[in-house]
């Protein structure tokens, strides 16, 4: 690990807005704030919104600045990236922003039923080879249901045509209520001013995709608490890239 990363991790240990519970810790230490985020950290009864796979935390910080009467929590396992947003939130004096460093596979261990109102998935890894790792898969949707209010909102913002199509097909397969959908966010003239303002927050990776001329896609839908969720069996063309400046490793042209 580089000296810079070590320094960031050391600083993170002192940040009062960061909670670090990766697999190795949560197995041995119960998360006692589960169900008590409002009372014990935010000290209010405002709604809670999660940014899952928050990276540098641009949406967590940006939304917290935009909506002071809503509580935001950025979640990621990459501490060196999260350090950027966590430090900015402290410098901005944001009382409605927190960060949780953990594996999203165990996200339901940190929140009680009905404790969260919305989820943002911002530029998640499309995981073209492994459906169970996609943050918009039914595997994860079932976990989100354990703490999301009935009919809570899920936002997907992505550069990946594969992930967008996969998620759209999953939503259609399960008849989940769609509130908004666009395949070219920044050239969609139908957006109202409030939505345009919210979606104008750019992440570090988003700027890279925009510079490469890729369309940014957005999908907002509700996740009901009841009903069986099923995966679509439609083959989807793979993206030509896996992540920034990295081509896809698979020789396949499509996947489910």
UniProtKB/TrEMBL annotation:
What's its EC?
2.1.1.33
Q: What Pfam family is a match, any one?
A: Methyltransf_4
One Gene Ontology MF term: tRNA (guanine(46)-N7)-methyltransferase activity
Q: Which domain of life is it from?
A: Bacteria
Q: Which InterPro entries match?
A: SAM-dependent_MTases_sf (IPR029063), tRNA_(Gua-N-7)_MeTrfase_Trmb (IPR003358), tRNA_methyltr_TrmB_bact (IPR055361)
**Pathway(s) served:** tRNA modification; N(7)-methylguanine-tRNA biosynthesis
Which Gene3D superfamilies does its entry note? Vaccinia Virus protein VP39
Is Metal-binding one of the keywords UniProt gives this record?
Answer: no
Q: Name one GO cellular component term.
A: tRNA methyltransferase complex
The record's top EC class is transferase
Name the CDD domains for this protein. Answer: AdoMet_MTases
Residues annotated to bind S-adenosyl-L-methionine: 51, 76, 103, 125
Quote the catalytic activity from the record: guanosine(46) in tRNA + S-adenosyl-L-methionine = N(7)-methylguanosine(46) in tRNA + S-adenosyl-L-homocysteine
Q: Which UniProt keywords apply?
A: Methyltransferase, S-adenosyl-L-methionine, Transferase, tRNA processing
The residues the record assigns to binding substrate are: 159, 203-206
Q: List, alphabetically, the HAMAP family matched.
A: tRNA_methyltr_TrmB (MF_01057)
The family database entries (PANTHER family) matched by this protein are listed as:
3-DEOXY-D-MANNO-OCTULOSONIC-ACID TRANSFERASE/TRNA GUANINE-N 7 - -METHYLTRANSFERASE, PENTACOTRIPEPTIDE-REPEAT REGION OF PRORP DOMAIN-CONTAINING PROTEIN
Task: Give the family this protein belongs to, as stated in its UniProt record.
Answer: Belongs to the class I-like SAM-binding methyltransferase superfamily. TrmB family.
What is the purpose of this protein? Catalyzes the formation of N(7)-methylguanine at position 46 (m7G46) in tRNA.
The name under which this protein is listed is tRNA (guanine-N(7)-)-methyltransferase
Where does this protein come from, organism-wise? Prevotella pectinovora
Q: Point out the gene that encodes the protein.
A: trmB
């Amino acid at each position: 690990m580089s000296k810079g990363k070590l320094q960031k991790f050391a600083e993170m240990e002192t940040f009062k807005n960061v909670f670090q519970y990766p697999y190795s810790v949560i197995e041995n230490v119960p998360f006692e704030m589960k169900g008590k985020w409002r009372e014990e950290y935010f000290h209010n009864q405002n709604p809670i919104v999660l940014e899952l796979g928050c990276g540098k935390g641009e949406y967590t910080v940006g939304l917290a600045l935009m909506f002071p009467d809503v509580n935001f929590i950025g979640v990621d396992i990459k501490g060196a990236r999260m350090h950027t947003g966590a430090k900015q939130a402290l410098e901005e004096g944001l009382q409605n922003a927190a960060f949780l460093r953990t594996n999203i596979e165990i996200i339901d261990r940190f929140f009680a039923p009905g404790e969260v109102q919305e989820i943002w998935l911002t530029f998640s890894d499309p995981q073209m080879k492994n459906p169970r790792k996609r943050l918009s898969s039914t595997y994860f949707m079932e976990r989100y249901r354990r703490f999301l209010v009935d009919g809570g909102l899920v936002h997907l913002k992505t550069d990946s045509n594969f992930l967008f199509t996969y998620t759209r097909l999953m939503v259609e397969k399960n008849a989940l209520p769609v509130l908004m959908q666009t395949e070219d966010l920044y050239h969609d003239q139908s957006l109202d001013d409030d939505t345009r303002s919210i979606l104008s927050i750019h992440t570090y990776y988003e700027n890279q995709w925009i510079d490469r001329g890729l369309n940014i896609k957005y999908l907002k839908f509700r996740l009901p608490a009841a009903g069986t969720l099923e995966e679509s069996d439609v083959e989807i063309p793979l993206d030509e890239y896996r992540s920034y400046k990295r081509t896809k490793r698979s020789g396949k042209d499509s996947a489910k």
